[in-house]
Amino acid sequence: MTDATTDVTTDAAVPLVELDGVSKHYGNVRALEGVSLEVHPGEITCVLGDNGAGKSTLIKIVAGLHQHDAGTFRIEGDEVRLGSPRDALNRGIATVYQDLAVVSLMPVWRNFFLGSEPTKGAGPFKRLDVRTMRETTHAALLRMGIDLRDVDQPIGTLSGGERQCVAIARAVHFGAKVLVLDEPTAALGVKQSGVVLKYVAAARDAGLGVVLITHNPHHAYLVGDRFVLLKRGAMAGSHAKADIALEELTRQMAGGSELEELSHELRRAPAPADAPGD
Amino acid sequence: MTAGAAATADERLLRQGRARRLLGRPELGAVVGAAAVFVFFSVVAETFLQASSLSTVMYASSTIGIMAVPVALLMIGGEFDLSTGVMVTSSALVSSMFSYQMTANVWVGVGVSLLVTLAIGFFNGFMLTRTKLPSFIITLGTFLMLTGLNLGFTKLVSGTVSTKTIGDMEGFPSARAVFASHVTVGGVDLQVTILWWLGLVAVATWILLRTRVGNWIFAVGGNADAARAVGVPVNRTKIGLYMAVAFCAWISGQHLLMSYDVVQSGEGVGNEFLYIIAAVIGGCLMTGGYGSAIGSAVGAFIFGMTSKGIVYAQWNPDWFKFFLGAMLLLATLLNAWVRKRAEANS
């Protein structure tokens, strides 16, 4: 990752995804203002920010759910305006949402191929290639280290971490070039977060460019190569890993002086009368 | 739910996967309910088990079942349609009045009716996907508009509340053969609608379980946002489902017309609930994402057995609706109970 910090002016370093001064307004609400970021193959770009910082808006623009109002959005050098998630997928951008990733009641194998189902036969006899779908799902998950004996079980019966992994395995299997992950570790325990981060790293090693959206600087710092900080819809900083330490990232992420003020307030607060309810 | 607890629960699920799969079929509760209703009427009504009685029961089941199939698909896709009952009548009225007024071959009217009915289905789906209003409201609007149109338009054209007879018109015999004839199989007289019904159940089951569209139907009902995010054409799937409902309403409407050769414009009101009830008894979740076409057929069969069984048991028909309601409620409760047990076992 030596070229991660170098200036990208050479042809060899055209980013997979490049946002330059991108803005988005909802009516008179400024959701995103002048945000820039780059995603390179084999690298993880982390987007950090608190609630309401504009992370969701950013992800929706990259995923093709919303269109930006100003600035430029380039995919492999081409300026684009994505009209739909299908557009984004066709250009190799796969997005894994925190809670929208899967249809809980459907079996794992149907979820795995949802939207890109392989078929066999022709005309009215064109049908799902169920055997291939089952076997491929099992094999693709096994490669990611998940051994499901029964790919027929509803995906809702899997744990949160496993569901994220299925979604990541799906994106890798369908040849995504850019993987966008929305808060993949937000609802998970420590151990499962570790498992998910391992697969994020595995996707990076497979040569994908990864955008990791999170509000956890510790998780971000473990795997990230670049860090973009968002605050109230605007850029609050952009750093390569070599230029910033975890402590500084955490401090900036938490809002620096605001955090100091908060700790000051908390120190002076009286001890609570009783423990919080069960 | 902690990560640890989920992992343990997952291990247990894996071991009992097969038993769970068998018990977890959506139509299981309905099959148990149907067996109970069947045994009940076999005991209380002597004539219930005769072949001719069963043929009558099957016919009654098929008239509901033909519509219950697409209604079940629509419910799996997460939506309702309250306009189905009167849409059947509209379809029959259009067919009959077009043929009579234009003095055209009956088949021309049948074709025009297909286009008009599909357009109504498209309207429902288009309004739903465009306005994002609940399907309950959209189709309630369509229901009322069609009810008014059926009566108003028929009176305007025919001067009375029913259409003119088309029984002596060109093409009627062949149209009747397709939509309202009888076939004798092994000495038993069977209505052709039974074949339409079973055929539709087979096609719908094939579509649901073995085609891309089927995968999409489950997905848009289970989690429309997730489906959209992976590139499923959610709006097209929903509009398609409403048009499938319209297509079956067209079949039912043509049967209604060809059985008698005239149509009463006020018919059909209230039938939409029978179709929905059949689908729900058959295991469709009211919230979408789960159900089966075969289940809707079993649900329709329960309806057929109940409505005719009361006649064969020689009960006072004044009580018909009460028994019908009680039977349907019991069957649904049994269905829910069986499903709960099946889930608890896993």
From TrEMBL, chain A:
Listed GO MF terms: ATP binding; ATP hydrolysis activity
Keyword ATP-binding: yes
Region described as Disordered: 257-278
Low complexity bias: start-end ranges: 269-278
InterPro entries the UniProt entry points to: AAA+_ATPase, ABC_carbohydrate_import_ATPase, ABC_transporter-like_ATP-bd, ABC_transporter-like_CS, P-loop_NTPase
Keywords attached to this entry: ATP-binding, Nucleotide-binding
All residue ranges annotated as the ABC transporter domain in the record: 17-257
Matching Pfam families: ABC_tran
Keyword ATP-binding listed: yes
Superkingdom classification of source: Bacteria
Coiled-coil zones: none
Identification of the protein by name: Sugar ABC transporter ATP-binding protein
TrEMBL record, chain B:
Topology in the lipid bilayer: Multi-pass membrane protein
One MF term in the entry's GO annotations: transmembrane transporter activity
Presence of the UniProt keyword Cell membrane in the record: yes
Function comment: Part of the binding-protein-dependent transport system for D-xylose. Probably responsible for the translocation of the substrate across the membrane.
Transmembrane spans: 28-45, 57-75, 106-126, 133-153, 190-209, 239-257, 293-313, 319-338
Signal peptide residues on this chain, from the entry's feature table: none
Record organism: Streptomyces mashuensis
GO cellular component terms given for this protein: plasma membrane
Name of the protein this chain belongs to: Xylose transport system permease protein XylH
Pfam family membership, one: BPD_transp_2
Keywords: Cell inner membrane, Cell membrane, Membrane, Sugar transport, Transmembrane, Transmembrane helix, Transport
Tree of life domain: Bacteria
Places the protein is found: Cell membrane
